[in-house]
Amino acid sequence: MATGKLVVLMMVIMLEGTRAISLCDMNDDGIEACRPSVTQPNPVDPTPVCCDALKGANLSCLCSYKNSMWLPSLGIDPALAMALPPKCNLDMPPDC
């Protein structure tokens, strides 16, 4: 097997083994609970589980991603993500 193919195969194996993510103090379960509310084309209102997860999130950190390609790469619409905390009766940081 060529060295390049081996490196690619190793990277795929590593990525598959690390599917769980954490974003701004929200674990994978919290992100998944909120995903229907931050995904186009038909976002829904956040569930109580989503809002509970969001209460523990670092909202300043979330704000830092609003112009990043990181959220869209996860299938998250940044505008919907920024609108989510107020829907959960949470105040956004003033610098957001």
Commentary on this structure:
- Keywords: Signal.
- It is a single chain.
- The longest helix is centred in the N-terminal third of the chain and has 14 residues, at 3-16.
- It is globular and about 30 Å long.
- It is built from six helices and no strands.
- 51% of the residues lie in helices and 0% in strands.
- With 96 residues, the chain is mostly helical.
Number of helices: 6
Q: Mean pLDDT score, rounded? A: 81
Q: Which bin fits the share of residues in helices?
A: 40-55%
The oligomeric state is single chain
Keywords: Signal
Signal peptide: 1-20
Domain Bifunctional inhibitor/plant lipid transfer protein/seed storage helical: 24-96
Pfam family, one: LTP_2
Write the layout of secondary structure elements.
Blueprint: H1 3-16, H2 28-34, H3 48-55, H4 59-64, H5 70-73, H6 78-87
Key structural traits:
96 residues, mainly alpha, 6 helices, 51% helix, disordered N terminus, Bifunctional inhibitor/plant lipid transfer protein/seed storage helical domain-containing protein, Bifun_inhib/LTP/seed_sf
Summarize this structure briefly:
This protein has helices at 3-16, 28-34, 48-55, 59-64, 70-73, 78-87. It is 51% helix and 0% strand.
